[in-house]
């Protein structure tokens, strides 16, 4: 058993080599219960390799995977009994109905009551279409039914690869709510891999960034923001740009300054912003807007990986 | 175990929902049940056929016909005293010379029928309704025709040899006549022995010894033609078996081979079964033979559908899931891969057995409704030295299961290729191709190579029907039609089973290794 009871997933030195290429290179991280972990990386970075190693699709050349303390090599069934997941697209038996698919999957987990199947179908909004064969479903509906299948046995670890694929904005919103509730209220660990960084930003508590098979960074969203924003930037819309630029450049609390049109962008700490605004106003510079500038996850990601991501 | 059970249930559900399986299975099962009805149209004869009685009125009518023919044949009959030298002494004989067209045929019929009308007891032994009356009349007429034919030879050409032959044929004719009129076998047998001695080319499967054995069980000559024919076939078969047992050799192809102990036991047991059938007057009518043929053919035809069905199920079991990605939900589930493999294998085996049994039952149902269930005879076998009966339904189901071992094997091959190539088209195509080609060595061996090579062809070791059902050809003995074939292979049963089991395990091990140890991308 792993040391920390709160750790739902622990990956230690996972390495997978295809030919001469290391798809995963000594990747290690943990995911705790009650958190949503975002797994980011450009195409071919090794995200899916790691996820497939966790879920038993591929056998890593090196390293160990512990799920709820169970090593998947030695206690595979115990480990996998508390995992639910979608890898790439949720492919199901298209000639069977959604309910039949879920029932078949539930059968492999033992005694899951029919009420739970109904509940999970309703949760993803497919209760009324549950008898339709999957081949009649749209991609978004397939994502929903895939999520229902992944959650039917109430797994302690949920691993979702591109779960928003094909979902409409309402669906994405619903998914976000479901996952947040599942992690924060029900205490499950959720690992999400996605290309839609804005969604990750809204959803995740922590992120891991992988590139060329190597895990570059694992940190909370706050830590990531701090790492990437050591100084705070503000943009200030002023009536007299030259005068404002002069005043700010003479002030010690203000760092680097850039101006464009009637907009000045300056490095100013949060503690000093009020005194800077007061300085401008008392010197006759009218201010029509003050806005704090934060780096988006997308910016951070591009900085960390050096570009090369598909942004949707 | 519960996990395997759950996976197995899921596999069965998936298979029966696969459109390709539904189409091929429906076609196969319909073919099995409908094919006998199609053949019923072809075999539209009256299966309750019995030899029609040759009544006095019919004979009188035929006789008048022959008399009319005789008038138009320029028939003349001349009597003369002819001198012939016999043993160095000239003797005078009263002889007749016949002339005219087709005289031997017309006159012999006329003479026989007149005699029959005057002397045959129609009330006691309806003519042609018993085997003896039919055969004795034929032989009587044949020998009479021979005598008339001899008397068409001009007087001056007749010599002592002619006279000797004439007396012999007359003697034989009289024996056959006596057999007919007195309705007894012994005269017929004596006539037959004499007749065979005179004709080197005479080839009759039914020897006098066979008829004498038949006479023991039918002293009054009451057996009808069909019954007697079957009983004599049993006796002929037994005699043939005894000859093989005595010689210790049997013919296969052009070369004889030494009888193995296994074959000797089979031949001895065959004789027990033949005795059992003979003693129990175990005879069938024409319909039984046809019914058995039809049922066998329905099974054979449906087997093609069955082969496609099983190879399709096995060949797509893994590759279809990989192609559609549905395998993901299996891999993510808390079950080890060997359990998934086992469940898939079990579901394939279940379908093999289910489909084979269903095809057998449907073909029996189709045959039964088309021809009559009572026409299907039981299988006789020997256990503990005693002959026992196995109901036809059980026999057919078990026989088909054994006969389907090669298709089962090639379904496993398809499963292995499916695990390896992850391509349904390749696995199904290659397996069907291998199955169709596996007959090629056998065909070549039968025509071009020594028969012993047959023992080493794949089919030789997988076709164990003859070994497990060695008495299947005795169900209905029909001299014109060998229903289940006579081919057999000399390799002992244990070798055949071992060969098949080992080869199957190798195939399954490759599939297992591929499925459980390799990544699923």
Mean pLDDT of chain B: 86
Specify the CATH class of the domain at 7-82 and 155-227 in chain A. Answer: Alpha Beta
Biggest sheet descriptor of chain A: 6 strands, mixed
From the N-terminal CA to the C-terminal CA of chain A, the straight-line distance is 40 Å
What does this entry look like structurally?
The complex is a heterodimer of chains A (312) and B (521). Chain A is an alpha/beta fold. Among the domains of chain A are: 7-82 and 155-227, Rossmann fold (3-Layer(aba) Sandwich); 230-292, 2-Layer Sandwich (Alpha-Beta Plaits). Chain A has helices at 47-55, 76-80, 98-107, 114-123, 139-151, 169-185, 197-203, 221-228, 241-250, 273-282, 297-305; strands spanning 7-18, 21-32, 36-40, 62-67, 70-71, 83-86, 157-161, 189-193, 206-211, 214-220, 233-238, 254-260, 263-268, 287-293. Chain A has a six-stranded mixed beta sheet with strand order 6-7-8-3-9-10, with helices on both faces. In chain A, strands 2-1-4-5 form a four-stranded antiparallel beta sheet. The model of chain A is unreliable at 308-312 (pLDDT under 50). Chain B is mainly alpha-helical and 521 residues long. Chain B has two domains: 2-48 and 285-517, no CATH class; 56-223, no CATH class. In chain B, 66% of the residues lie in helices and 8% in strands. Chain B has helices at 2-16, 19-42, 56-71, 103-119, 131-150, 160-182, 185-198, 208-217, 225-247, 261-279, 286-316, 319-324, 327-332, 337-371, 392-403, 405-421, 424-437, 439-447, 458-462, 465-468, 493-517; strands at residues 76-86, 89-99, 249-252, 255-258, 379-383, 386-390. In chain B, the strands form three sheets. A two-stranded antiparallel ribbon of chain B has the order 1-2. The longest helix of chain B has 35 residues, at 337-371. Chain B is elongated and about 110 Å long. The model of chain B is unreliable at 481-486 (pLDDT under 50). The chains are: A alpha/beta (312), B mainly alpha (521). The A-B interface holds A 52, 55-59, 76-81, 83-85, 87-96, 100-101, 104-105, 107-110, 149-150 and B 2-3, 6-7, 9-10, 13-14, 17-19, 324-326, 328-337, 517, 519-521.
């Amino acid at each position: 058993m792993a040391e920390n009871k709160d750790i739902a997933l622990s990956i230690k030195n996972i390495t997978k080599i295809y030919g001469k290429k290391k798809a995963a290179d000594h990747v290690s991280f943990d995911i705790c219960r009650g958190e949503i972990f975002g797994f980011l990386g450009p195409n071919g970075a090794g995200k899916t390799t790691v996820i497939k190693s966790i879920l038993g699709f591929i056998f890593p050349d090196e390293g160990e995977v512990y799920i709820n303390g169970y090593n998947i090599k030695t206690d595979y069934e115990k480990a996998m009994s508390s995992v639910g997941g979608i890898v790439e697209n949720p492919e199901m038996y298209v000639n069977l109905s959604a309910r039949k698919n879920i029932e078949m999957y539930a059968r492999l987990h033992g005694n899951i009551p029919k009420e739970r199947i109904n509940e999970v179908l309703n949760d993803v909004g497919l209760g009324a279409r549950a008898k339709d064969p999957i081949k009649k479903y749209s991609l978004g509906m397939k994502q929903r039914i895939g999520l229902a299948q992944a959650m039917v046995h109430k797994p302690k670890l949920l691993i979702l690869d591109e779960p928003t694929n094909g979902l409409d904005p309402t669906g994405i919103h619903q998914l976000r709510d479901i996952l947040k509730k599942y992690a924060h209220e029900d205490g499950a660990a959720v690992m999400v891999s996605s290309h839609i960084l804005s969604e990750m930003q809204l959803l995740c508590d922590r992120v891991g960034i992988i590139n060329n098979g190597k895990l570059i960074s694992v940190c909370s969203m706050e830590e990531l923001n701090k790492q990437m924003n050591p100084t705070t930037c503000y943009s200030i819309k002023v009536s007299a740009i030259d005068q404002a630029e002069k005043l700010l450049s003479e002030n010690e609390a203000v760092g680097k300054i850039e101006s464009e049109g009637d907009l000045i962008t300056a490095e100013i700490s949060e503690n000093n912003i009020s005194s800077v605004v007061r300085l401008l106003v008392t010197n006759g510079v009218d201010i029509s807007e003050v806005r704090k500038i934060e780096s988006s996850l997308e910016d951070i990601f591009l900085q960390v990986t050096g570009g090369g991501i598909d942004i949707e | 175990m519960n996990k395997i059970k759950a996976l197995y249930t899921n596999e069965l559900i998936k298979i029966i929902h696969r459109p390709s399986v539904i189409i091929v299975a429906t076609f196969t099962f319909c073919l099995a049940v409908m094919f006998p009805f199609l053949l019923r149209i072809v075999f539209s004869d009256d299966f309750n056929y019995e030899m029609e009685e040759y009544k006095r009125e019919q004979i009188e009518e035929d006789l008048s016909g022959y008399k009319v023919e005789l008038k138009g044949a320029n028939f003349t009959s001349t009597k003369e005293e002819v001198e012939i030298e016999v043993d160095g002494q000239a003797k005078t004989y009263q002889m007749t010379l016949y002339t005219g067209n087709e005289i031997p045929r017309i006159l012999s019929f006329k003479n026989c029928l007149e005699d029959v009308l005057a002397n045959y007891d129609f009330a006691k032994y309806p003519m042609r309704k018993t085997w003896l009356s039919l055969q004795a009349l034929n032989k009587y007429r044949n020998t009479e025709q021979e005598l008339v034919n001899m008397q068409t030879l001009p007087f001056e050409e007749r010599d002592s040899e002619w006279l000797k032959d004439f007396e012999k044929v007359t003697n034989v004719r009289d024996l056959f006549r006596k057999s007919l009129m007195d309705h007894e076998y012994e005269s017929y047998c004596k006539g037959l022995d004499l007749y065979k001695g005179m004709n080197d080319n005479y080839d009759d499967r039914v020897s006098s010894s066979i008829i004498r054995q038949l006479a023991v069980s039918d002293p009054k000559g009451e057996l009808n033609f069909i019954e007697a024919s079957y009983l004599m076939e049993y006796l002929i078969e037994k005699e043939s078996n005894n000859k093989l047992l005595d010689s210790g050799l049997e013919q296969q192809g052009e070369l004889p081979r030494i009888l193995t102990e296994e074959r000797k036991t089979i031949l001895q047991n065959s004789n027990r079964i033949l005795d059992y059938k003979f003693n129990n007057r175990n005879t069938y009518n024409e319909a039984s033979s046809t019914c058995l043929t039809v049922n066998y053919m329905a099974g054979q035809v449906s087997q093609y559908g069955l082969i496609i069905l099983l190879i399709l199920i096995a060949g797509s079991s893994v590759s279809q899931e990989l192609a559609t990605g549905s395998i993901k939900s299996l891999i993510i589930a808390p079950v080890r891969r060997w359990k998934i493999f086992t469940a898939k294998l079990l579901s394939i085996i279940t379908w093999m057995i289910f489909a084979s049994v269903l095809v057998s039952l449907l073909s029996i149902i189709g045959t039964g409704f088309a021809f009559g269930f009572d026409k299907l005879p039981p299988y006789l076998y020997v256990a503990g030295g005693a002959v026992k009966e196995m109901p036809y339904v059980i026999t057919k189901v078990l026989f088909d299961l054994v006969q389907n071992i090669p298709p089962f094997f090639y379904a496993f091959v398809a499963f292995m290729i499916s695990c390896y190539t992850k391509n349904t088209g390749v696995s199904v195509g290659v397996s069907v191709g291998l199955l169709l080609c596996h007959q090629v060595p056998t065909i070549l061996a039968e025509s071009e190579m020594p028969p012993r090579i047959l023992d080493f062809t794949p089919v030789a070791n997988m076709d164990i029907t003859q070994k497990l059902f060695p008495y299947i050809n005795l169900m209905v003995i029909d001299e014109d039609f060998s229903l289940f074939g006579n081919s057999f292979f000399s390799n002992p049963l244990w070798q055949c089973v071992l060969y098949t089991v080992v080869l199957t395990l190798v195939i399954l091990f490759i599939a297992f290794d591929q499925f459980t140890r390799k990544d699923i991308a």
